[in-house]
Design brief:
The chain is α+β, with helices and mostly antiparallel strands and about 90 residues long. The protein contains four helices and two strands, in the order αααββα. It has one domain. The protein is about 45% helix and about 10% strand. Strands 1-2 form a two-stranded antiparallel sheet. A hairpin with a 6-residue loop joins strand 1 and strand 2.
Length: about 90
């Protein structure tokens, strides 16, 4: 596997914090991987949907709703067919 160097700009205060780390490269690799693993699968981290994605979302949202978990308070998507006891999804 060939390693590649990628650079990016940060403000002075973040640079100071990063320079204090014993292994900057490993920390940054792990942070980037964690962020990629938690990226929205629909918008892929852009924070918005393009018109085609929006059409698909609207269709999906017709039988799903966003709600808050009663146990952990996390926001999640819930299929309304589960409430009706239907096997349709």
């Amino acid at each position: 596997m060939k390693n590649e160097i990628i650079t990016f700009k940060v403000d002075e205060s973040l640079a100071e914090l990063i320079h204090r780390l014993p292994n900057k490269s490993e920390f940054i690799r792990q942070a980037v991987m964690a962020a990629l693993e938690n990226t929205c699968p629909l918008c892929q981290g852009t924070g918005s949907l393009n018109p085609d994605q929006k059409k698909h979302w609207d269709e999906f949202a017709g039988h799903h709703q966003i709600e808050q978990c009663h146990d952990c308070n996390a926001i999640h998507i819930h299929c309304i067919y589960e409430d009706a006891g239907s096997s349709n999804t």
